[in-house]
Amino acid sequence: MTVVRISDDALALACGADAVAAAFTAAGCTVERVSSWGMHWLEPLVEIDGQGFGPASPADAAAILDGTSTKAIGPVAAHPFLARQYRLTFARAGRTRPLSLDDYAATGGWAGLDRARGMAPEQVVAEVIASGLRGRGGAGFPAGIKWQTVAGAPGTRKYVVCNADEGDSGTFADRMVMEGDPFQLLEGMAIAAHAVGAGQGYIYVRSEYPHAIAKLRAAIDLAAPMLAPFAIEVRVGAGAYVCGEETSLLNSLEGKRGEVRAKPPLPALQGLFGRPTVVNNVLTLTAVAHILAPGGAEAYAALGMGRSKGSMPVQLAGNIRHGGLFEVPFGITLGELVHEIGGGTASGRPVKAVQVGGPLGAYIPPSQFDLPFDYEAFAAADALIGHAGVVVFDDSADMGRMARFAMEFCAAESCGKCTPCRLGSTRGVELLDRIRAGTPLADPVAALPQMHNAPKVPRSREADLALLEDLCETMQFGSLCALGGFTPYPVRSALRHWPDDFLP
Amino acid sequence: MPDLDQIIAAHANREGPLLPILHDVQHAFGCVSPEAERAIALALNLSRAEVHGVVSFYHDFTATPDPRPCVQLCRAEACQSRGVEALVPAAQAAAGDRVRLATVYCLGLCSAGPAARVGDRVHARLDEAALVQLVEAAR
Predict the structure, then answer these.
(1) Which residues contact A137 (CB under 8 A, 6 or more apart)?
(2) Is residue B132 located within the same domain as residue B76?
(3) Which of A34, A53, A265, A425 can bridge A411 by disulfide, Cβ–Cβ 3.0-4.6 Å?
(4) In chain B, positions 9-68, which contact chain A (CB-CB < 8 Å)?
């Protein structure tokens, strides 16, 4: 009986993996549904005895089985896209069945938790600090320091909250972990719970990820005996992007409007229901599982550059030929990622810009492609790594329109708590419309009779640009959270590098 | 189909039960009506204003039901870079008044856009013909 391995990751399903699987079942094969290797341009990828075929359609089944398929890519694990990676968090990707406890245990699963539970909690925290692991959600705060704060906070009821509200466009690593290796996330959460003394954990998943929600719930049922006495529950978001911000996420978990809270108090001291709470991203908690495995912390700290230690699951997305998941140590340059690994644009046209870090990330021109993946190097270049999503645009992109979209997105998703974000984003859309229209339009508000001091003549383009700069500064430094605070990044970077796109 | 009291009772012993209740109510009745808000507020010892504030905050909850089938089309940056905006007019024409064509910001299929979701089924690598077919087939 031929065993055929096909992914049941949402991206593979969206590309028709179920129909391909059905075709192989009908041909008398045993189909195993595994996690995705992360080579998305090859999905649905069919694997038989280590040999890969993709992207496969149901009609390809016969040719694949009789060895005449033109879609053969050779041995999957030796594919150049995979051979260049250093996979830790995604070590099981493509190799195991997501909900198989046997597969998980056979590939080193639970080693981290078993070892951590044999250690004193403060030793576990010390190892996480020594590994150099920084929060993968975007801010890059040292995870061990956060845990230390929670562990030292007074109180007997503490929580571990996993932020799985992966709303940034261009990111899918959290989704791939939840759908492909859910036990590793649960293991990481249980280690965090042991380290800080928490009894209850929550995973807050966005409602746009129905497959991840189903997999996690099934995985929690299966793994409950291993996790006990720690308990985990999945909570589903309700379509609010801002709930990816940790304090807004906590409010949402409590059943409130997802409005941002002012900090301090830090969630580590007064988080969920006012109790000390660890809030970490999916990738952070997942990394903990392999960091706590024997020798894991030293191996992790040995990778990377500067203060950015370990590996980063980079997500190659947008208009890119070879999109997918690429986990490497920090330090790789943008140019290597986009051109050498990603193979340039899918459309075949020249690259115009890449946006790193989601809707709040800066647009970076090819002239800065020597920028290494490193939190500090990106910050120095007025950009951010965020969740390491890389979205590629070809030369047909209108960066003026993308800048407007950044403001429009912020206006649609603002929680409304602070003025710079709530009002600034809408004023930003209007300003960009005026700038891009070229004809100086009279400001209807300035024309009102009660606006005594407002000029009654339309503003010049230069005055509008100065006003936009002023607005961006107000949003950046005056907003409560990253939504309003980072929206100026894409706007300013687009204006700086492609001023011609803002001409009428 | 569970009634409102059953939904509330099923979540009553959770910490922070409001969102799970609202999800189930929205799923069962297609909306969270003012009457449902009142009943939930009473059961959770909240004011109606507090419950309404939460319902109106989140995109997933609606005050009135929309019986039309819904196609969620991702129009975030990654799908824009792969040309989703050019597909929108044809999709809207195909949708007409029969299908609700909703915008969603990211389905996590960013390397294979344009992407759309109908119910719990996701679709990627859409071109105009595939998207129009998806909209026309939506039930």
Answers:
(1) A163, A244, A246, A280, A281, A283, A284, A387
(2) yes
(3) A425
(4) 14-20, 22-23, 44, 50, 53-54, 57-61
Looking at residues B91-104, what average pLDDT do you find?
A: 96
**The pair of three-digit structure tokens given for residue A77, joined into one six-digit string:** 């694990």
Show which of residues 405-444 on chain A sit within 8 Å of chain B, judged by CB atoms. 405, 409, 412-413, 415
d(CA A184, CA A216): 11
**Which residues on neighbouring strands pair with residue A281, listed in sequence order?**
A163
- Domain extent at residue B83: 70-137
Tell me, yes or no, whether B26 lies in a domain: yes
What is the reported pLDDT for B12? 87
Of B59, B104, B106, the CB nearest to A238: B59
Residues in chain A: 504
Residue in B59, B76, B82 closest to A239 by CB: B59
Amino acid at A326: F
Question: CA A339, CA A333: separation in Å to the nearest integer?
Answer: 10
Residue B35 lies in a domain: yes
Tokens of B14: 């959770």
Q: What DSSP designation does A138 have?
A: T
A169 contacts in B (CB within 8 Å)?
Answer: 76-79, 105-106, 110
Give pLDDT, residue A448: 87
Per DSSP bridges, beta strands B116-118 and A363-364 are: unpaired
Identify the structural domains of chain A with CATH numbers, from first to last.
3-83 (3.40.30.10), 101-301 (3.40.50.11540), 304-394 (3.10.20.600), 399-502 (1.20.1440.230)
Structure tokens at A181: 């290796």
Candidate from A14, A237, A346 with C-beta closest to B123? A14
pLDDT confidence tier of residue B109, bands split at 50, 70 and 90? very high
Return the residue of B nearest to A40 by Cα: B111
B74 shares a domain with B51 = no
**Residue A319 CB contacts under 8 Å (≥ 6 apart), including other chains:** A345, A346, A347, A392, A393, A394, B81, B82
Closest CA to B98 of B136, B126, B44, B132: B136
B70 touches chain A (CB under 8 A): no
Residues B77 and B128 in one domain: yes
Co-location of B77 and B125 in the same domain: yes
> Residue B43 falls within a domain, yes or no?
yes
pLDDT of residue A475: 97
Please report the pLDDT score of residue A441 as a whole number.
65
Nearest to B111 among A239, A252, A316 (CB): A316
Give yes or no for B127 touching A (CB within 8 A).
Answer: no
pLDDT of residue A438: 84
Q: What is the C-alpha to C-alpha distance for residues A91 and A84, in angstroms, rounded to an integer?
A: 13
Q: Which of B44, B61, B110 sits opposite A170 (nearest CB)?
A: B110
**pLDDT-flagged residues of chain A (< 50):** none
Most B CBs within 10 A among A320, A391, A392, A410, hence the mutation to make, goes to A391
B1, pLDDT greater than 70: no
Chain A segment 252-311 residues within 8 A of B by beta carbon are 252-259, 273
Q: Examine the domain organization and report whether B51 and B86 are in the same domain.
A: no
Same domain, B52 and B81: no
- Same domain, yes or no, for B15 and B38? yes
* Number of structural domains found in chain B: 2
